[in-house]
Amino acid sequence: MPSSTEIAASGPSASPRIVVTLQAPERAADPDLARRKNARYLEELAAAGGAGMPLDEASDPATRRAAFEAMQGLLLTGGADLHPDRYGQAVDGTREIEPGRDELEATAFAAARERGLPVLGICRGFQAINVFMGGQLLQHVEEHGSPPYLSGPARRHPLLLRPATRLARILRPSDPNGGVLSVNTYHHQAVRREDLAPGLVEAGYSRSQAGDLVEAFEAVDRDAFIVGVQCHPERVESTPAEFARLWRVFVDACHGAARAQPATGGRTP
Predict the structure, then answer these.
(1) Which of 30, 69, 81, 135 could cross-link 197 (Cys pair, CB 3.0–4.6 Å)?
(2) How far is it, in rounded angstroms, from Cα 226 to Cα 214?
(3) How far apart are CA 204 and CA 129, in angstroms?
(4) Which residues are catalytic?
(5) Is the dihedral of CA 256, 19, 77, 86 positive or negative?
(6) CB within 8 A of 26, min separation 6: which ones?
């Protein structure tokens, strides 16, 4: 992890500085596997031209403050379940909880929102954005899991993109009807339509025994770049090539925030 001094000293750069919230490896059951998972997000950001600033729940307060002041975008990544008390429920299907990470990401999201910075949420991050904006979660859903990462090939299912959404234009710019993509599935919690937070609009969905599940959303406010996807696009071996555009557009939105200090949000692609 970078120190607070290193973050504060970083000057203007062609690469926008993007805070990436991650699982603390030393608090994971398999620290080496956690590091490998964490690295995938940073690698994809770098490939798209972004400079990741990793933070986890073990980051000290000074490092967090410096990162939040310097950031030009926020990436909330995958991991354990959020504590259901954050959305007013008792534990009923939630399997693993990391309250320290919940607190870190809630603070990071509030800081990004206050400054109008672009935010991308992946898997847990997708669910976290929904909760932080006032939505709910379905604490367990069958049939959407895969073998543990690196222990077998990922299961996939169709992601049906909503026409005329920002995400559809990013992933399928030549198809005005949005289209369908086959995405990996590594989650046991979900967002139903009735769970979606105010201020968010469905951008893609999938079928399940529990009914249609929202698997992608974006901000209703077209001036705000807030996008979430339930799948794991950093795992490129099980991800459609179209998702490379999502990384690039997100980083480009962060470039826009960097050029417009104080930031006013991302640009519509």
Answers:
(1) 135
(2) 15
(3) 16
(4) 123, 232, 234
(5) negative
(6) 58
Q: What is the pTM of this model?
A: 0.90
Instruction: Tell me the C-alpha distance between 110 and 37, whole Å.
Output: 25
Which domain CATH number covers 136? 3.40.50.880
Whether 267 is in a domain gets the answer: no
Tell me the per-residue pLDDT of 151-165, one tens digit each, with 9 for 90 and over: 568 789 999 999 999
Domain count, the chain: 1
Number of helical H runs and strand E runs in the chain: 7, 10
Give every CB contact of residue 151 below 8 A, 6+ residues apart in sequence.
Answer: none
Contact indicator for 167, 203 with CB cutoff of 8 Å: yes
Q: How far apart are CA 51 and CA 43, in angstroms?
A: 10
| Tokens of residue 21, six digits | 């919230």
- Note whether 226 and 219 are within 8 A (CB): yes
Q: Report CA 236 to chain centroid distance, whole Å.
A: 15
Spatial CB neighbours of 101, under 8 Å, sequence gap ≥ 6: 21, 23, 24, 56, 57, 79, 80
The structure tokens listed for 205 are: 């969905």
Quick: pLDDT tens for 56-75. Answer: 999 999 999 999 999 999 99
Using CA atoms, how far apart are residues 206 and 158, in angstroms rounded to an integer?
6
Q: Is the peptide bond before 262 cis (omega within 30 degrees of 0)?
A: yes
Enumerate residue ranges in the chain where pLDDT < 70: 1-13, 144-152, 261-269
- Structural domain contains residue 224: yes
Task: Give whole-number Cα distances, 213 to 77, 121, 187, in Å.
Answer: 19, 16, 12
- Buried/exposed code over 82-91 (b: 16+ C-beta within 10 A; e: otherwise): bbbebbeeee
Residue 36 is part of which domain span?
Answer: 4-259
